[in-house]
Fold this protein.
Amino acid sequence: MKMKIVIGNDHSGVDFKNQLVGHLLSKGIEVINVGTDSVDSVDYPDIAKEVSKKVLEKEANFGMLICGTGIGISIAANRISGIRAALVTNELCARLSRQHNDANILVLGARVTGIELAKSCVDAFLSAEFEGGRHSNRISKIECGCTNGVIE
Ligand code: RB5
């Protein structure tokens, strides 16, 4: 089955997102673009929620999120149960976020990471697979909320 990516960004990442969409399409990957496609200000938690929903409902294999730094939108996405959003700035972290952390959303900062490096991060993320084994136990602990939200 064809790989499908759901991608979303705030106003700071429109051009960056468009370039990544072009890159994904050129690799034969289907893309669901949830926007924004305007430079008018939007709130990144809304975009994080929309992409996360589609990932959790398995409308796409993975999500990609972009804001200025990637920080706000990754914080927002990681508040959603079942989402493991990895903010990366290099290929190694992109690859390891799949291999070790089973990340289901790749996050990039449009004001931080150059577009060619970002494309390489996308490629590294998509070509790596979760290794399971010792990492599965750690992912299970994350999915149990580690502490159910309470630090005793
Ligand atoms: C928007 O100006 C900016 O705050 C946002 O894109 C992001 O960098 C937040 O973390």
